[in-house]
Request: fold
Amino acid sequence: MAKNKANVAHVEEGIPWKHIVGFALSIVLTLLAVWVVFESTLSKSVIVTIIFIFAFIQAALQLLMFMHMTEGQNGRVQVSNILFAAFIAIVVVIGSYWVMEIGHMNHLL
Reply:
């Protein structure tokens, strides 16, 4: 029987350093977000912005470290699909907020 390299799982021996580093960075990002909320004297809008930035960084980190997004023959295609989906999601959220904000302003007039 011939083995197809695309179907054979890649098994690493030893300590999974990539997973340990990813886990540690996820914990650090979470603790930084908690510190910003409880210990900083920043305004609420700045705190929310910082939390969103940490959330996007952590989501990207988990996709790269744990989901093995860039590994394999079509890693570049997977990255472009994720970036396109993120772009569409951002457009939908910002567009929805913009439409609701204009509707609210017109309602007040």
